[in-house]
Amino acid sequence: MLALTTRTASAPARRCLSTLLSLNEEFPGVPSTSPSPKSVSKPEITTLPSGLTIITEANASTSTVSITYPSGSASEQAGESGAALAAKHMSFKSSATASSARILYDLENAGASTFSTVSRFSSSSGYTCAPEQAEGLLGMLSTPSAYELWDMRDARAYAALDKAEMMQTPETALSDLIYAASYGEKTAAGKSLYQTVSNEGIVSFMGRELVGGTLVATGVGDHKAFVAAASAAFASATGGTPSSPPAFTGGESRLAASTPYSHVAVAFKAADSNAVNAVVKALLSAGTGSSAAGFTADGLVGAYGSSLAGSAGALSEDIMKSVSSAGSGNLDSAKAVAK
Questions:
Q1: Which residues of 15-40 are buried (b: 16+ CB within 10 A; e: fewer)?
Q2: 225-248 as b/e: b if 16+ CB within 10 A
Q3: Cα–Cα distance, 61 to 145 (Å, whole number)
Q4: Each residue's pLDDT tens digit, 3-29
Q5: Which of 209, 276, 312, 331 is spaced 20 to 30 Å from 240 by Cα?
Q6: DSSP secondary structure code for residue 243 in this structure
């Protein structure tokens, strides 16, 4: 009897619910099932007389501010090999106006997290924070380094750790070695990113190359106010001179390793369009199946993979065939993946 009572009581409730709410009505308190299109903001660009380019974009809940210089390890001169990697670890260290401890305190107090990267042809550093903190931290990007001995000592030690990690990871080792094959081992672009440098080399490289650049900020609503703040922070900055693009020659480079596997990377000169490079990357990944994966790097696009020792040649041929024999169907699929 109790079960029967429960069933008869629930049936009217179901009928009542379907009667009260039609298919195009929304449940109270539940997010809309037909949300309005997301608003898209357009980047605003300003170039200062000093040559510094400022780009802001408002459509973000947090702010990310970064400065990118058109200089990486390919811009190193004699006596500076390894300086670009060490300079990466000099970001947010002692400056002309604050110690490393003070900079760290201010960053933590603002709830900001920092990052820095380096490649053959560019270097960048920046921070992510709440939008209201974005302008106040600009000085940490603009103030020149104090080149304290302990900061440079630590930077060289961290660079040595980067090299040790690189040698333990085949993909990373290939990513470095592929430039020697692409541009030549003795060229500025072909030499290894991971080298030992002196304090003098760090000072020389940073003072000459890490100037000017492009400042990009997301999550900034007032472009004019940010430009005014950046103009004040970078008032003494001068425009840098980008290195001339190296000549892509193509070739081969090998590294002996005691491993039962052969690791192979094949690369091509990247196109000027990031969209095209994304399609080529997807095409390489799809064309070689599970044996290789496509990649994009600074100035290059290609694929790397591994096989049993002695099968490197066959794997290289498979990667090449994935490009030369690509049909319209493969291209359409690659375009869909790249979107």
A1: eeeeeeeeeeeeeeeeeeeeeeeeee
A2: ebbebbbebbeebeebeebeebeb
A3: 31
A4: 443 444 444 444 444 445 566 666 666
A5: 276
A6: P
